[in-house]
Amino acid sequence: MILQAADDLLGTEPAVLTGALVGYARVSTRDQRLDRQTRALEAAGCIRIFADKLSGKNTDREDLAKALDYLRPGDALIVPSLDRLARSLQDLITIVADLRRRGVGFRSLKEALDTTTGGRLVFHVFAALAEFIRELIVEGTHEGLAAARARGQRLGRPPAMTSEQVRHARDLLTRPENTVSSIARLLGVSRSTIYKYVPELATGRPAVEQSTARAELVRYPPTFTGFDGASLQR
């Protein structure tokens, strides 16, 4: 997502911004007054202002979604300060990149950031920050994986069968009356899983089947009928 944001930030210059100025304000739970923010946005020329009365940690910012949906190519989004718009630098870059892709300008009054006048440099800065965050994420992921391996932690999906289940399957397979299907049902796995975790089955199962056949001969010996009609047992 961050890499895509960087590409959007360095894309083709948006069209000349001649549309409406749309304001967005937000207050946290510690400051429930919007008056100062709305006055600043009105003084900046905003014809419409959207406002959320939520904590920045709350992801359900309904009025921000409405403001972004209201904007059209050529419009500009005005905010009192960057922290009123985004929860994090990554969030800020994503929003600004999306605005640029749509041909919408962006201005933050407190930080004096304005993409509508000489915005190319501003977008380059945002793109550099996006790449920086992406590299941090990749580096942090690699370091986390290396630390987990060093601790002996197993990575990836959990095994389909535990070592205890594998031992149990091997014990059951020594009994000729048990089939792979019945053992799989008993352990709650598939036949292919049994074959995967007990690879000797690929070569050793015929011997088990032969043992089963021999056991069947012992239990049920074949009978022959003699010439006089008497049954003979071998």
TrEMBL record:
This is DNA invertase Pin-like site-specific DNA recombinase. The active site is at S28 (o-(5'-phospho-dna)-serine intermediate). Pfam families: HTH_7 (PF02796), Resolvase (PF00239). GO terms for biological process: DNA integration. Keywords: DNA integration, DNA recombination, DNA-binding. Belongs to the site-specific recombinase resolvase family. Residues 20-152 form the Resolvase/invertase-type recombinase catalytic domain. SMART domains: Resolvase. GO terms for molecular function: DNA binding; DNA strand exchange activity.
